[in-house]
């Protein structure tokens, strides 16, 4: 998978107040988060579908998969959290597919 994270080193994209980069390295979600935290800030936090569409549209076009900072810490309860501390997930502000994120 391709990593998407804040403040990084490859394919530079500016999106509102943040800088996003796709990094072409195969990693698990945990490995991607560790990499991003060591090199920069964290995996990307997507506030709404407008931001998600902007990231997709401004990508290089050949990057169809990327890790974002959303994770399910509770398993069966499907309670989602952003990996960046202090940022809360609000599923009402998004347009996720059924049974997603």
Computed CA radius of gyration, to the nearest angstrom: 13 Å
Helix content: 10-25%
What is the mean pLDDT?
72
Estimate the global geometry from the Cα principal axes: globular
User: Which strand-content bin applies to the residues?
Assistant: 15-25%
Spans of at least 5 consecutive residues with low confidence = 5-15
SSE run: EEEHHEEE
> What count of domains describes the coordinates?
1
The profile of the biggest β sheet is: 4 strands, mixed
Helix count, DSSP H or I runs of 4 or more residues: 2
Instruction: Say how many strands there are.
Output: 6
Briefly note the structural class of the backbone: alpha+beta
**How do the strands of the widest beta sheet line up side by side?**
2-3-1-4
Distance between the termini: 17 Å
Explain what the structure shows.
A hairpin with a 7-residue loop joins strand 5 (70-72) and strand 6. Residues 5-15 have low confidence and may be disordered. The protein has one domain (2-93). The strands form two sheets. The chain has a four-stranded mixed beta sheet. The chain has helices at 29-39, 49-58, and strands spanning 2-6, 12-15, 18-23, 66-67, 70-72, 80-82. The two termini are 17 Å apart. The chain is an alpha+beta fold and 101 residues long. The chain is globular and about 35 Å long. Pfam families: Lectin_C. It comes from Iconisemion striatum.
């Amino acid at each position: 998978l391709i990593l998407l994270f804040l403040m990084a080193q490859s394919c530079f994209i500016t999106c509102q107040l943040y800088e996003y980069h796709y990094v072409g390295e195969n990693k698990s979600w945990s490995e991607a988060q560790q990499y991003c935290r060591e090199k920069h800030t964290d995996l990307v936090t997507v506030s709404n579908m407008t931001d998600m569409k902007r990231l997709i549209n401004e990508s290089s076009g050949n990057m169809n998969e990327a890790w974002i900072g959303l994770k399910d810490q509770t398993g069966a309860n499907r309670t989602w959290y952003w990996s960046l501390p202090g940022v809360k997930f609000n599923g009402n502000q998004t347009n996720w597919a059924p049974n997603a994120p």
